[in-house]
Amino acid sequence: MLMSAARTSPEPGVAPAPADAVIDLRRASFGYGERPTVTDATLTVRRGEIVAVVGPNGSGKSTLMKGILGLNERTAGTLTLFGVPGDELRDRARLGYVPQRHTLSTSVRATAEEIVSTGRLPRIGWLGRLRATDRQIVARSLDVVGLADRAATEVSTLSGGQQRRVLIARALAGQPDVLIMDEPTAGVDAANQHVLADVLERLVERGVTMIIVTHELGALERLLTRIVVVDGGRIRFDGTPERYAAQRGAVHHDHDSHHHDDELRPHPSGVAVGPLDAPHDGSRR
Amino acid sequence: MIDLLSIDFMQRALIAALLVGTVAPMVGIFLVQRRLSLIGDGMGHVALAGVAIGLVTGVAPVWTALVAAVVAAVVIELLRTRGRTNGDVALAVIFYGGIAAGVVIISKSPDGTPANLMKYLFGSILTTTSSDLYLFAGLAVLIAATTWALRPRLFAVANDEEYARAVGIPVLPLNIVLAVLTATTVVVAMRVVGLLLISALMIVPNAASQLIARSFSGALRWAIAFGLVSSVGGVALSYPLNTPSGGTIVLLAVGLFIVTAMVATARTQLSRRRHDVAEAHAHEHGIECGHEAIPHGDHVDYVHDGHLHAAHESHYDEHGHEGPHSDPDGTADTAGTAGAADTAGTTTGTAR
Prior knowledge:
The complex is a heterodimer of chains A (285) and B (352).
Chain A: H1 2-8, E1 21-32, E2 35-46, E3 50-54, H2 61-69, E4 73-81, E5 84-85, E6 95-98, H3 112-118, H4 132-144, H5 160-173, E7 178-182, H6 190-205, E8 209-213, E9 226-231, E10 234-239, H7 241-253, H8 258-264
Parallel strand pairs in A: 3-8, 3-9, 6-7, 7-8
Antiparallel strand pairs in A: 1-2, 1-4, 4-5, 9-10
Helix pairs in contact in A: 3-4, 3-5, 4-5, 7-8
Chain B: H1 2-33, H2 39-57, H3 61-82, H4 87-107, H5 114-122, H6 130-159, H7 161-166, H8 171-193, H9 198-212, H10 216-241, H11 245-273, E1 293-296, E2 299-304, E3 307-312, E4 315-321, H12 322-326
Antiparallel strand pairs in B: 1-2, 2-3, 3-4
Helix pairs in contact in B: 1-6, 1-8, 1-9, 1-10, 2-3, 2-4, 2-8, 2-9, 3-4, 3-8, 5-8, 6-8, 9-10, 9-11, 10-11
Membrane topology (chain B): Multi-pass membrane protein
Family (chain B): Belongs to the ABC-3 integral membrane protein family.
GO cellular component, one term (chain B): ATP-binding cassette (ABC) transporter complex
């Protein structure tokens, strides 16, 4: 375990962040109150990367993301966003956030377009209203997620997967430099998972930098450039999908390799098994 | 002479009702959205303490009520944000402390009669003076302008506070502004509706509008319409009926809610009957889906194995077969009436 930690986390304070780093964490701890939920996280995400953050439920994936977004307390370490200290970033909308929501629970009626428009707000003046160009961007965002013909539909009547895509469109409307998605595929039916994967693929084609928190790689796997495994509040693995697959393969090959087993698969079903994880078994529509 | 006088105070009361009927639902929709429907009621309780202090000290009660309600609003919002202490209990302490202080202090004032207390609690059209009216008009314009200007951001914060914080929208300041707007609305409405009933005029028109609206902006327009009908109608009725204006206004609003609920239910059942949903449909139509898209009135039909599918809510509606619809000269092809002339068995789904 020690060996792995030394290998996977770069020595903090030694190498400066690369020039194209959008997110740079050095030995950062995040949490609420005194007890951090994520400790000693060192992670650099460069422009154009598609990073999956995987790990079992409660491993600290979401806490790590919220830490990057400034939604919880950083108790140690440094956070650099687009080359400036995280606290000093004024233009927060450069980070596009797709929160984990099972439903878009609205206590009042609102159309998909109205929800997506809120994503445009950071880009317009305080007393300003959406202008023609802003409306176009909102419309295009809905189009990218395949909901152009449902712009005027009341969101609570949409399916779970469609609501999830409304949230992605909301983040896109702010024209972010990086998109942070928390479990975009969780609790979404098979047909909609497929649509979601297509949507993400479209974003990859557009060169959007993405960090996707998920506990099921599945259809996303082909899009990824990098996989980060979080467990027990620590980053346990950080590397290419190939290396991830190789190490996971080794685990399956040699059951006595308990070191790796502990690191990569702390809970037998936790890391990477989900409905999307078996694209060949024909059960996926 | 008496007629003139009556016309005079009726005029003032009607103008006050017009102001209140407009601004109360405007502010109220955000309270409904944040699930804080009862907060206005609590602020009314605290405003009573302000009124009492005004009556005892000889300051205009409207001003003291305004100060008390605004201070309470800010304290409440800060308590809610802290969250660690039991916010709910803290609110109860403030609210009941407010009304209790109001009742006790008012009994010490020179004109602290039960009748006087009733006027403030339940509203009385006789109490609106013309200097009050100027103040109310000023405050109402301020409330309406602020709410209108901040509407997109108030909506964003109430819709998803965490997201708003992540993208840098100032959540706490906006919530405090909303609380102050609520407190100010309570004071503006105090004379006409009464402190115990003002919350109803913020919430009930919105409850009714939520039953029929399909968008936030639509809901807001309906709520203001319901609010205006109830407040102006209630004041107008309370004079010939000789009833307290506040109660009359709120009963009218509740009546409108019930009628709206019945209409909405009837309409849903009617449309369900004439509404064909396409078979279980895993495919999502779109620009790139390969199915021919035919613009049709206010929606787009996709030709799917000879059937016309149109997006409706989370599913696709069956809009019949390709034949009759693809006729570009179809006489029924105007938005809103598209479905009425459709062949039997098709639906007006998106056109409703």
